Amino acid sequence: MTKLKVTVFPKAGVLDPQGKAIERALGNLGFAGVGEVRVGKVMVVEVNEADPARAKALGEEMARRLLANTVIESFTVEAA
Amino acid sequence: MTKLKVTVFPKAGVLDPQGKAIERALGNLGFAGVGEVRVGKVMVVEVNEADPARAKALGEEMARRLLANTVIESFTVEAA
């Protein structure tokens, strides 16, 4: 089995309300000098594919079809 | 400014219903040979701290106090 790490973030320019909320909360907790916060998802997926290139391609297809909303999100796939 | 990447995952043994749901959905989409799927959060936080070690310590404190529920989640902090 190969472990893939699929990381999904909102595309640049897409509003990130979670990030904004965390920025404010960190400030309220007394953390000074906090800049932008961006929040994404990360998924570790075990696939029954030993070849790294084919496993990565499989992960990219999973991301395109399910794990990411490619209209507003971008993703990366790497070996975990 | 330094960019930190804080990654948060459920601790081993903690139920991951999102992961289970994604496993099933990938199977339903025809992806054969999918093993375990674990889902976590990833946050990129800009901090006004140039020293890498101090920035990392700051990120760890942010994770302990806000970004992770350390009862059921574990986290890592690295330079983004």
From TrEMBL, chains A, B:
Species of the source: Sabulicella glaciei
The keyword Cytoplasm is assigned to this record: yes
Quaternary structure annotation from Swiss-Prot or TrEMBL: Part of the FGAM synthase complex composed of 1 PurL, 1 PurQ and 2 PurS subunits.
Function: Part of the phosphoribosylformylglycinamidine synthase complex involved in the purines biosynthetic pathway. Catalyzes the ATP-dependent conversion of formylglycinamide ribonucleotide (FGAR) and glutamine to yield formylglycinamidine ribonucleotide (FGAM) and glutamate. The FGAM synthase complex is composed of three subunits. PurQ produces an ammonia molecule by converting glutamine to glutamate. PurL transfers the ammonia molecule to FGAR to form FGAM in an ATP-dependent manner.
Pathway noted in the entry: Purine metabolism; IMP biosynthesis via de novo pathway; 5-amino-1-(5-phospho-D-ribosyl)imidazole from N(2)-formyl-N(1)-(5-phospho-D-ribosyl)glycinamide: step 1/2
Domain of life: Bacteria
Keywords: ATP-binding, Cytoplasm, Ligase, Nucleotide-binding, Purine biosynthesis
Encoding gene (name): purS
Protein's name according to its UniProt entry: Phosphoribosylformylglycinamidine synthase subunit PurS
Coiled coil: none
Protein family membership: Belongs to the PurS family.
Enzyme class, broadest EC rank: ligase
Chief place where the protein resides: cytoplasm
Keyword Aminoacyl-tRNA synthetase: no
